[in-house]
Amino acid sequence: MDRLIFVFCIYMKNHFFAVLLFGLLWSCSSNPNSPKDEPFSSSSFDISSSALAISSSSLTVSSSSVLISSSSVRSSSSAVISSSSVRSSSSAAISSSSVRSSSSLRSSSSAAISSSSVRSSSSAAVSSSSVRPSSSSYSSSNTMPHYVLPSAPNYGSNVSVHDPSIFKDDDGKYYTFGSHFDVATSTDLMRWTQAWSGGNDAKAARLYGSNPTWQTTLATAFQHVGVDGDNRPPASTWAPDVIKLNGKYYMYYSLSTFGSSKSYIGRVEASSVTGPYSNSVEVVKTPGSGGTPNAIDPAIFYDKEGKLWMVYGSFFGGIYIFEMETSGTRIGLPKSGQGTYGKRVWNGSNGPEGPYIFYNPNTDYYYLMVSHGSLSTDYNMRVARSKNPDGPYLDIRNRDATTTNASGNKLAGNYKFAGASRGYAALGHNSVLKENGKYFVIYHTRYLSGTSDVSGNHNQFVNQLFFNKDGWPVMAPNRYAGESTGRVDAGDVLGEYDVVVHTPVGNSVTFINSSVYSFADNGNLMKDGAVSGSWSRTGDYYFSVTINNAVYNGVMVPQYNNDLGYAELSFTGVSSEGTSVWANKKKK
After folding, report:
1. Do 264 and 340 sit in the same domain of this protein?
2. N or C terminus of the chain with fewer C-beta within 10 Å?
3. Alpha-carbon span 429 to 431, nearest angstrom
4. pLDDT the model gives residue 290
5. pTM here?
6. 462 in the same domain as 330
């Protein structure tokens, strides 16, 4: 009998933890008080047959020893295991990173299992790498809700606002102000209404009133600018921007003639967002001589410290910035001591104009957007970023926009998706709105005319801006339809896509037609039955796509394909050379 007791003790010494664990599992699964809607099943806690390797001298759990699925671990016991520690009479410890799961640990009890330590009477220790995610896990948390496809939006009729600058009033209504006195309104950023129509003078009367006329109100600006080569005075203002300061609406406008840098930026004020505006005050004017900037295209913004700035300019000398007064009699006007024209932040070559700066607190960067090229044919939006509102602004190639020609990441060129009734051209002169954590780019676009020409008519559209894992903005391929980001799993993206690899950084009127690529389940990107690249999931909705050896880092988001009329996933990304790619998943 003594010998049997001795053998039993040796057995228990070597197998204590296994017996203890078996007893715990048995008690949890057989607890009569467990809720019936939370069974302790093999799907919620999965331990393989090789899960526990126990030696006579120590308890060792190998790196593959415990497999906890990405779904929640549930226990029907009335006790709660705390997330700080589970203690018993043991000395074994599991390190803070030893158990990882992409979802929550659930129990009907009041305690939680801690990632810091689990102790028992054994001397064995489980290392921090002992539990690893399965091959389907990624660096993302997988706690983000799964994406939801947007419903078909009601866009209504298209509006025409050239060089649109967006403003949100206190009542929640959105306004865009553009050249030629055009204004549009919206309550949801999708359905827009043209505020008024008619000739320039008729529309100007809505903004400035008719007595006096807008020419009289802006008399000082007209006196400076003069006439063009055909002895004609300016027919309208260009690219206004509206801001509200101390309860008063201020509109910054520019007056010039085409092809000249003898220009004037002034400011008028009103008690209503749509006017009538009056009391014109000079902000900055340029003489039209070589080596000086061009006083057009003003845009006002606040930095993260509450300082007010104005950015302006064009390819005549580049893009410049002023810090502005935020109080006193000169509120909204340049502070003294900055020179006649302020500080240059973007080189003047290759035709930059229409600057706009916004700040993203998540990346802690300021983003300067400009439009390069001709507004009639090859306009294209570029972006660079800086830690400071007044630069220096660098692009993805680490090129300083202040001194480098043809800098900036190119958001889009001229393109046409297969099956679409029209191609799009000269996307540009944008503004940006941040709303409830989303970023929107508001721009005008022209269209493909014939096989390769660009139309004269234009419309205003709104697309979302997203930020890839490196903090670079990428533009959604389709118009905003109320969509939000959500978790996109690897299996969600499989299928065929219409893909547009936009023209490289530079000005080009060439229209890129989409090509069909397939996202295969082995990570290959297929074209015409052959491997043409690869793809991988790098986060909740972050993806990397390689085409012709160029790697595009971006996001996969639910979108409504406004050309073909269905909702599916879309990809947008940017390469290390600043070239963008768009992809719309084909309808199943």
Report:
1. yes
2. N
3. 7
4. 82
5. 0.78
6. yes
Choose the catalytic residue: 182, 241, 353, 498.
353
Strand pairing category for 73-75 and 105-107? parallel
Residue type, 112: A
**Measured distance CA(150)–CA(331) in Å, rounded:** 43
Interval 540-553 mean pLDDT: 98
Other CB atoms within a 10 A radius of the CB of residue 501 amount to 21
CATH number, domain at 353? Answer: 2.115.10.20
- The verdict on 201 and 114 lying in the same domain is no
- Contact at 8 Å (CB) between 409 and 504? no
User: Helix, strand or coil for residue 560?
Assistant: strand
Whole-number pLDDT of residue 125: 35
User: Which residues fall within 8 angstroms of residue 109, CB to CB, at 6 or more apart?
Assistant: 75, 77, 78, 79, 80, 81
The encoded tokens of residue 63 equal 């790196």
Q: How many structural domains are present in the chain?
A: 2
pLDDT reading at 401 higher than 90: yes
The answer to whether 353 is a known catalytic residue is: yes
In a domain, 579, yes or no: no
Residues 108 and 204 in one domain: no
Query: Are 304 and 452 within one domain?
Result: yes
Share of the chain above pLDDT 90, in %: 74
Give the pLDDT score at 110: 34
> In a 3-state reduction of DSSP, which class is residue 238?
strand
* pLDDT band for position 349 (cuts 50, 70, 90): confident
In a domain, 22, yes or no: yes
Residue 391 CB partners (closer than 8 Å, separation 6+): 321, 343, 345, 368, 401, 402
CA distance 342 to 435: 30
Question: What pLDDT, on the 0 to 100 scale, is given for residue 488?
Answer: 98
Encode pLDDT of 447-494 as tens digits.
Answer: 999 999 999 999 999 999 999 999 999 999 999 999 999 999 999 999
* Domain presence at residue 44: yes
Tell me the two tokens of residue 227: 């006439």
Q: What is the per-residue pLDDT for 258? A: 92
Q: Among the three residues 90, 118, 146, which one is the final residue of a domain in this structure?
A: 118
DSSP 55: -
- Pairing relation of β-strands 512-513 and 415-416? parallel
- pLDDT tens, residue by residue, 108-167: 333 333 333 333 333 333 333 333 233 333 345 568 999 999 999 999 999 999 999 999
Q: Is omega for the bond preceding 352 within 30 degrees of 0, making it cis?
A: no
Catalytic residue list contains 297: no
Mean pLDDT of the chain, nearest integer? 82
* Domain around 10: 2-118
The number of beta carbons lying within 10 Å of the beta carbon of residue 403 is 12
Token pair in block for residue 36: 């019936």
> Of the candidates 465, 432, 430, which has an alpha carbon nearest to the alpha carbon of residue 445?
430
Helices first, then strands: H and E counts in the chain: 4, 37
